[in-house]
Amino acid sequence: MRIVIEAVCKEYTGRQEQSLLALNDISLTVEQEEFVVLVGPSGCGKSTLLNLVAGLLAPTSGVIAVEGLTEDRDPAVGMVFQEVGLFPWRTVAANIAFGLEEMGIGRQERKTRLAHYISLVGLTGFEQAYPHQLSGGMRQRVGIARALAIQPDILLMDEPFSALDAQTRTLMQEELLHIWDKTRLSTLYVTHNIQEAVYLADRIVVLSRRPGRISSIIAVDIPKFSRDQEQYRYCFNTYVDEIWRLIRKDAEEALREGES
Ligand SMILES: Nc1ncnc2c1ncn2[C@@H]1O[C@H](COP(=O)(O)OP(=O)(O)OP(=O)(O)O)[C@@H](O)[C@H]1O
Fold first, then answer.
1. ipTM of the prediction
2. How far apart are CA 203 and CA 199, in angstroms?
3. In terms of DSSP H, where are the helices of 65-193?
4. How far is the CA of 20 from the centre of ligand 1 (A)?
5. Which of 14, 46, 73, 97 could link 18 by a cystine bridge, Cβ 3.0 to 4.6 Å?
6. Which InterPro entries match (predicted)?
7. Structural domains for the chain
8. What is the position in ligand 1's atom list of the atom closest to the CA of 158?
9. Per residue in 175-214, pLDDT tens?
10. Measured between alpha carbons, how far is 228 from 236 in angstroms, rounded to an integer?
11. What pLDDT score does 260 carry?
């Protein structure tokens, strides 16, 4: 599956005729099995772009399409957010099953998928636990399993690990790569964290400040599953420095204007 974004602009219109151009002329293709990470200063339109791809917002102009579907239907979109938004009264299994029930998937198939995705995210044994009994990292695993269980065509992730402590975040990044490797979904991922971007991405898209425009696209040429190894440390840090240089001025302006 490919996500094709062509000349997309998004303007928010306020009540008193004030409008805000959040995104201007965004063209980007997430190729089949590609993991693309969006970075940029606060308020540059990262979440807006993700919501447009998800179909939760409509572009003011331009086109967004998911290409590669073999049937005539809307693409299924898996979404993972910073706020996992689990139902506190449902168990882990029942939270993951919710989307499947909504889709009308039968009991037996639900059971098979639950077992598969719960095991994939490492939650076997916690099926009957309630959200309040889980750590932040475990709750986010439930969020990932819930997104994957619908067997989406594409995966969208909006700062999924930003509420986690640093160690849990590092572990979840590692796990995400392994989980992603089993699905190979075309993925668009938003983060503020440059190290996270360099660790996860095939390509990093840097957005500039308002209105958000693509200022650079950087392919990360370090073997995907070895980026934390000593031998690549210099190379890794070079990417981090390069991206920080690209967004620093914008980030400082955003900070001055109180957007973070
Ligand atoms: N519903 C809305 N109505 C009006 N303006 C909005 C709306 N949603 C977002 N904006 C504005 O659009 C711009 C882009 O917002 P968006 O949340 O997409 O940026 P972001 O890069 O994801 O920000 P952050 O990194 O802080 O999460 C911001 O200036 C924001 O204030």
1. 0.97
2. 11
3. 92-102, 107-120, 136-149, 166-183
4. 9
5. 14
6. AAA+_ATPase, ABC_transporter-like_ATP-bd, ABC_transporter-like_CS, ABC_transporter_ATP-bind, P-loop_NTPase
7. 29-57+153-259 (3.40.50.300), 87-152 (no CATH)
8. 22
9. 999 999 999 999 999 999 999 999 999 999 999 988 899 9
10. 8
11. 52
